[in-house]
TrEMBL record:
Catalytic activity from the UniProt record: 2 5-aminolevulinate = porphobilinogen + 2 H2O + H(+)
SMART domains tied to this protein: ALAD (SM01004)
Enzyme Commission designation: 4.2.1.24
Descriptive protein name: Delta-aminolevulinic acid dehydratase
Source organism of the structure: Dovyalis caffra
Length: 460
């Protein structure tokens, strides 16, 4: 049987542009597809071409082949094309004991024997669409590093904020939540700056919406950034938080943020009745489309006096209390429920997932972020792997979205992970379409399923 090899070089340059994102490509810039011509099948007036993408040889491509009927006739006549030989059974290391097979009808390892098999049966997935990126902003022009959170900054709202959002969108993260640092001179005991329509947060929202109309913006509804007392509510002289008066201020704050263009307002104050009151205030002002994202802080070290944080945070020992809060918030018009912090309370996330029809969110707080960062710096852990595992755990527990300071880094990691397995990457929709159109004209035998691409407008 005679065979000759014809080479079909396909040069595919890497494309850099607005829609290119992720890590540096790991595949060669040139892919060569080899074609083997087989000429010894009796009764076949034409030739059969076999396309391979593993050999590197040069030569022109020729379009020759058989019809389906001719191929079937050849096989029926006994002229069956030869396939590669069956691979030999891998040899065991020297000294391996010879033992009878265990009488197991089910071996779960079978579904994990290769990366492709593992991916096929993966029950939980994670993508950049699951992330909400918390961003700190201030009135200054420069981006100020946050010492306890490596890689995080207090961003200038005019420039640094816009640039960071652009980086996030490039890798598919299109949801952010804003946390302001308000000048001390504007803070009062009643937090009136919280509902200033020309305050820091409303200005930042308007700026972002002007540049990125489709950006999803979450806001924090609480008085602590605006209070001279540093608490989420108005504090009476005996140290008691004034619930109803605080709710009145929160309603004005939520309406001001919605007026600026916020998509989701997020009460984190834990005042009783504030969900219903804010919903009513938003609806009365024509903001029926604005969601309420309810944040539940669970008791942790806050640095506040016990009198204050005990009035706000739920007792970490109580899971039934979470159900009470969930039922109350649902009845008052909550759209999303969030557990903060996330990783220590996976059981609460699962409880809410099983009991509530609402979307569930988790906040991977600064402490969780900083611990992973510190472990990575000290070389005690693989930072990237632990980061991705912690995020996957939150998803597996039932979180639909995750507020995480790792949003940008994790999204870049996901893009790089996909690129590792893909053959062609980094093309805009237009350039890839043109390449495929011209290539398939000259080589119709190439399977389209072998080509996968990713752009910032369509992250898998």
């Amino acid at each position: 049987m005679a065979s000759s090899i014809f080479n079909a070089p396909c040069t595919v340059p890497a494309v850099k542009g607005k829609n290119y994102f992720g890590l540096k490509p790991t595949v060669p810039s040139k892919l060569r597809f080899n074609v083997a011509k087989k000429t010894s099948i009796e009764g076949c007036p034409k030739v059969v071409f076999i396309v391979r993408a593993c050999e590197k040889k040069d030569g022109p491509i020729k379009k020759l082949g058989l019809s389906d009927a001719e191929c079937e006739a050849a096989v029926a006549a006994g002229n069956v094309p030869k396939a590669p030989p069956v691979p030999p059974k891998p040899a065991a290391p020297a000294g391996t004991p010879v033992v009878p097979s265990l009488p197991l009808s089910r071996r779960p390892r079978r579904n994990r024997k290769s990366p492709a098999m593992r991916a096929s049966f993966q029950e939980t997935s994670i993508s950049a669409a699951n992330f909400v990126y918390p961003l700190f902003i201030h009135e200054g022009q420069e981006d100020t590093p946050i010492g306890a959170m490596p890689g995080c900054y207090r961003l200038g709202w005019r420039h640094g904020l816009v640039e960071e959002v652009a980086k996030a969108r490039d890798v598919g993260v299109n949801s952010i939540v804003l946390f302001p640092k308000v000048p001390d001179a504007l803070k009062t005991s009643t937090g009136d700056e919280a509902y200033n329509d020309n305050g820091l947060v409303p200005r930042a929202i308007r700026l972002l919406k002007d540049k990125y109309p489709d950006l999803v913006i979450y806001t924090d509804v609480a008085l602590d950034p605006y209070s001279s007392d540093g608490h989420d509510g108005i504090v009476r002289e005996d140290g008691v938080i004034m619930n109803d008066e605080t709710v009145y201020q929160l309603c004005k704050q939520a309406v001001s943020q919605a007026r600026a263009g916020a998509d989701v307002v997020s009460p984190s104050d834990m005042m009783d009745g504030r969900v219903g009151a804010i919903r009513e205030a938003l609806d009365a002002e024509g903001f029926q489309h604005v969601c309420q994202f309810i944040l539940w802080p669970i008791s942790r070290g806050t640095g506040l006096k016990p009198t204050f944080w005990r009035q706000k945070d739920m007792n970490l020992a109580n899971y039934r209390e979470a159900l009470v809060e969930a039922h109350a918030d649902e009845s008052e018009g909550a759209d999303i429920l969030l557990v903060k912090p996330g990783l220590p309370y996976l059981d609460i996330i699962r409880l809410l997932r099983d009991k509530s029809p609402l979307p569930i969110a988790a906040y991977q707080v600064s402490g969780e972020y900083s611990m992973i960062k510190a472990g990575g710096v000290l070389k005690m852990i693989d930072e990237e792997r632990v980061m991705m595992e912690s995020l996957m755990c939150l998803r597996r527990a039932g979180a639909d979205i995750i507020l995480t300071y790792f949003a940008l880094q994790a999204a870049r990691c996901l893009c790089g992970e996909k690129r590792h397995h893909w053959d062609l990457i980094g093309f805009t929709n237009t350039s890839l379409t043109n390449i495929l159109f011209h290539f398939f004209q000259s080589s119709p035998v190439l399977s389209f399923s072998s080509l996968v691409f990713c752009t910032s407008k369509a992250v898998p």
